[in-house]
Request: fold
Amino acid sequence: MQIFDNISSMQEWSLQMRKQGNSIGLVPTMGYLHEGHLSLVKEAIKNCDKVVVSIFVNPMQFGQGEDFEEYPRDLSRDTSILEKMGVDAVFAPTAREMYPSGFSSSVEVSGEIAEKMCGASRPGHFKGVTTVCTKLFHACLPDLAFYGQKDAQQLLIIEKMVRELNFPLKIIRVPTVREEDGLALSSRNVYLEGAQRQEALVLIKALKQAQKQIRGGERDITRLTASIKEIIATSPQAEIDYVEILNGDDLSELERIEGRVLIALAVKFGNTRLIDNLLVEV
Reply:
């Protein structure tokens, strides 16, 4: 397995692989890998000749007062895991490499899809995401890029960017990976202290209850949202950021439940902000 820390070397390797007729799969991560990331890697290995995993904690997508400095990092652990899995290359650039002195360019998906949910809670976050993904696509030159459904809004925004800007690659969705008790895997789960880990289970409990209600015939979004909030409120430490029930294809508003629906939420437990979602087909 090769490890690259600069863009030109990564591009050179990717170009060489493509000239040899290999397809390239990219798994973009911020490192501190867990089974959710590894599920993406497994899909990439299954579908591509060569697999690149990027590891970069992107400062551009963190707002003031967020956890950029504290975000867990362990590059040697991550590269050891990836080498054992059979990954071909790791792209682990520095912030200076990605954003050299004087850097002032950006790529942004605007409009309703980026302005609600995490876009409203974290201004500038998705501008940072789309900019870094653009740079990663140009550095790694993938045919396929693999993203998890847990970050549903990010996934839809990246798909829109790739489609509208004619990137010559395909985005592959991979289902959310959960702990045995249902908690969605996240690098931020390590922040949960004491009772917070158990209390965080109200997220999947609330989502599953809403899913059950929809499958049972409930179509009123106001009642469903209230039900979700009521369950979350049973956790003493939970502080709701948002609860949304939206069109699962483009995050547009719905008058009632119909078609493909995304039930999404973000909740803080102390200083730890967790997101989760379920897609429901009606």
